[in-house]
Design goal:
335 residues, mainly alpha
Length: 335
């Protein structure tokens, strides 16, 4: 058994090394081909136009960075992977989640990381668990990066909800002082902390560049799919059509949002006991199994070496995970 474990470990390391070297080699070939193509096109264009760099007074320094005015919609730096990802619809959802979490990650790298983590987890779990149980383990580990993205996204949404009522009060005060709406947005963007500052600045820039307040607020609602943001966008759009005192509307929205946040805090405090109970009930069997391995390993080896032992271990882990999510779902109260 020890020899098989050692062989499996070396095979796993060998596969990981092959995948890493292959990806690095493909990236190198792609960059080399793009540099060669760019140089060839540049030289050909200069020859066609008859441009003399020295005579025209051009600087010999080459600007390598691309202009920030151009958007890069490529999903991956690898051509074959980019072409493959464009065929799936869920990639757009992943791009939206990355934008909402404000993570500067490439979609291609995220998907490759998920695939690599899932493959490694499946190979490791296959040596301990049956194949039918190793497949869900691999899928769960592969979805771990996506779960991290969702966690960062929820944390950012929570920070936005906490600061947004104060932002509405600041906007209301700026409008009472005589500032126009665009100047009020820029003023609030310079004074508020992240992540509200970045979102307010994006709205002001999009509206000032000719997109219009309605479209800019719709984009804000897509980046921040929160009820508070949708109410704010609807209030500003309605004010632009019918008129009225927008500062009083924003003040009323801020008071309502603070009351809602206070109620959510009370509910979260009441549900914390149930979440902690579910976490303890999930960790306790695993901790007891680890203690038994340390105190009496022969007692646990009987379960592992038995023909039905791996199946029982997989079933126990599945029941623990299922029970944990059921408890969290029961105590997750939405307002």
């Amino acid at each position: 058994m020890l020899i098989l474990s050692i062989l499996g470990f070396f095979v796993l390391i060998f596969l990981v090394a092959i995948i890493t070297v292959a990806i690095a080699w493909m990236v190198f070939l792609r960059e080399a081909s793009e540099v060669g193509t760019a140089v060839g096109e540049g030289v050909g264009a200069e020859e066609k136009l008859g441009i003399d760099r020295a005579g025209a007074g051009f600087d010999e320094t080459v600007i390598e960075d691309e202009s920030p005015l151009f958007r890069n919609d490529r999903l991956s730096t690898l051509n074959f992977w980019d072409n493959l990802l464009t065929r799936f619809d869920f990639i757009e959802i992943l791009k939206l989640r990355l934008a909402q979490a404000e993570l500067d990650w490439n979609v291609g790298r995220v998907t490759l990381t998920m695939l690599l983590c899932g493959t490694i987890a499946f190979l490791l779990a296959q040596s301990v668990l049956p194949v039918w149980a190793a497949v869900p383990v691999g899928i769960a580990v592969a979805m771990a990066p996506y779960g991290y993205i969702l966690r960062v996204r929820d944390r950012r949404f929570r920070k936005f909800q906490e600061v947004f009522p104060d932002v509405l009060d600041s906007l209301a005060r700026a409008l009472r002082a005589g500032y126009p709406l665009s100047a009020a947005f820029e003023l609030v963007a310079n004074e508020t902390p992240a992540p509200v500052a970045a979102e307010m600045k994006k709205v002001a820039v999009e509206a000032n560049l000719g997109m219009g307040w309605q479209r800019a607020l719709e984009n804000l609602g897509q980046r921040m799919p929160l009820l508070e943001v949708n109410l704010f966008g609807a209030a500003v759009t309605l004010h632009a059509r019918t008129g009225g005192k927008l500062s009083e509307v924003m003040t009323g929205l801020a008071e309502t949002m603070r009351e809602s946040l206070a109620l959510e805090g009370e509910v979260r405090a009441l549900a914390a006991h149930g979440k902690l109970t579910g976490l303890i009930l999930t960790i306790l069997p695993i901790a007891i199994a680890i203690m038994m391995l340390i105190v009496s390993p022969n007692y646990m080896y009987v379960l592992y070496e038995h023909p039905m032992g791996k199946t029982l271990i997989a079933a126990a882990i599945a029941c623990l995970v299922l029970a944990h999510f059921i408890i969290r779902k029961l105590v997750d109260i939405r307002i």
